[in-house]
């Protein structure tokens, strides 16, 4: 083989090796998640007020009594174990009557999940009205899905969006959707300044609730998160306040 061709062949081989290594490193990164805390998850699974069912596409939390026929598709934050949200969201289901579907995002990153909303709403066929929401980057993705679903045939129409320690990156101000933003005063990632800065992307009648002393990781149960502020709150109290905020919002939304 002439020398120029050998050089080209080596370049091609090393390029392919480098690409393969990058893929392996990315997959390892994506599959290294912030695991849910076992005691919190067990408390949710044994909570007599809710019934939890696991599917490949997501985890369904249903209130045993007082279901309203409304549902929430909840998208986890980036690289956070979906099961880390069961404890907080089981209280939301009980207090509000919502059926909640916690998605299992592709590669544990919501932005890589291109499945339509109906993939998740199909897990709770008895729900008649749907909301979409999420934590952190999951909430950013929820904002994108909030107006896109009804454009496609067979996709559910969304009543509104619920953000948990999150904010929109796309403009929903003229969407007519109901919107709830629950944030924490000690959140070091979705900081109060970021929440305020993105407030104009939500409809003018959006409801904003800031929980005193709550940080970013308080919206789930997965331990400390790099870059976050310090929580000064009891976990059970935070759980109750999140649930109360969602229930009050839904009462007002009708």
> Architecture of the largest domain in CATH?
3-Layer(aba) Sandwich
Q: What is the radius of gyration? A: 20 Å
Q: How much is the average pLDDT?
A: 88
Top-tier CATH class of the largest domain: Alpha Beta
CATH fold group of the largest domain: Rossmann fold
Tell me what the structure shows:
The chain has 254 residues and is α/β, with parallel strands linked by helices. The chain has two domains: 1-30; 35-253, 3-Layer(aba) Sandwich (Rossmann fold), CATH 3.40.50. It is 35% helix and 19% strand. The chain is built from seven helices and eight strands; from the N terminus they run H-H-E-E-E-H-E-H-E-H-E-E-H-E-H. It has helices spanning 3-30, 38-45, 86-96, 118-121, 137-148, 192-197, 235-253, and strands at residues 50-54, 58-63, 70-75, 99-103, 129-135, 158-164, 178-184, 207-211. It has an eight-stranded mixed beta sheet with strand order 1-2-4-3-5-6-7-8, sandwiched between helices. A hairpin with a 3-residue loop joins strand 1 (50-54) and strand 2 (58-63). Helix 2 (38-45) runs parallel beside helix 3 and helix 3 (86-96) packs parallel to helix 7. The longest helix is centred in the first third of the chain and has 28 residues, at 3-30. It is globular. 44% of the residues are buried. Residues 16-31 have low confidence and may be disordered.
């Amino acid at each position: 083989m002439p020398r120029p061709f050998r050089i080209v062949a080596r370049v091609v081989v090393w390029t392919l090796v480098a690409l393969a290594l990058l893929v392996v490193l990315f997959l390892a990164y994506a599959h290294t998640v912030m695991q849910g805390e076992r005691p919190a998850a067990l408390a949710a699974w044994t909570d007599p007020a809710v019934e939890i069912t696991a599917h490949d596409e997501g985890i369904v939390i249903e209130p045993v009594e007082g279901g309203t026929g409304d549902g929430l598709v909840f998208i986890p934050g980036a690289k956070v174990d979906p099961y880390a949200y069961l404890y907080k969201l089981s209280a939301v289901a009980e207090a509000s009557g919502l059926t909640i579907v916690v998605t299992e995002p592709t590669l544990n990153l919501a932005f890589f999940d291109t499945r339509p909303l109906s993939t998740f709403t199909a897990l709770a066929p008895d729900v008649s009205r749907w909301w979409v929401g999420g934590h952190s980057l999951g909430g950013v993705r929820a904002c994108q899905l909030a107006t896109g679903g009804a454009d496609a045939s067979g996709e559910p129409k969304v009543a509104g969006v619920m953000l948990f320690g999150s904010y929109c990156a796309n403009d929903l101000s003229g969407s007519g959707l109901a919107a709830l933003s629950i944030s924490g005063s000690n959140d070091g990632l979705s900081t109060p300044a970021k929440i305020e800065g993105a407030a104009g992307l939500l409809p003018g009648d959006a409801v904003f609730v800031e929980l005193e002393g709550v940080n970013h990781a308080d919206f789930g149960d997965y331990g400390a998160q790099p870059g976050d502020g310090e929580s000064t709150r009891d976990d059970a109290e935070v759980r109750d306040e999140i649930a109360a905020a969602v229930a009050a919002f839904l009462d007002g939304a009708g």
